[in-house]
Design a protein that fits this description.
This protein is mainly alpha-helical and 145 residues long. It is built from six helices and four strands. The N and C termini lie close together (6 Å).
Length: 145
Amino acid sequence: MISEDSDKKLVDQHRHNAKPDSSITCEILKHSLNSELSCASAFLIAKKCNVSPYKVGMIADLINCRLVKCRMGLFGHRPDKKIVIPVKTTDQNLKNTITDNLVEGKLACKIAWNIAFCFKVNKMTVSGICEGMNIKINKCQLGAF
């Protein structure tokens, strides 16, 4: 995702010939407010339309709708963009699972979600533990980062 202060349109991030699907566009417009679509809403749309979250994120970009309120706390929150805070944990199994799933020192968003599910913890807890371990989360499922 490009920064708020950039003049470059979100659509410029995608191929010039990419066309937004009308049914997904309609769903995005129904779920957005002030040209902003929450992470949670984007995933609901993906499930409803039987498409990948990345496709919903791409179409949101194509119609200039900002993705906000990342469920990992990494972007799109106010007043600060990022709300995740470092968390210390004594759960060595959880820490080992995180480190065992790193690729080039980073943890993919989808893997972080899977870890949260497996350990029955909140997604923000996993991102907070990663912050506490100085591990960056990458490969946003919506394509935001």
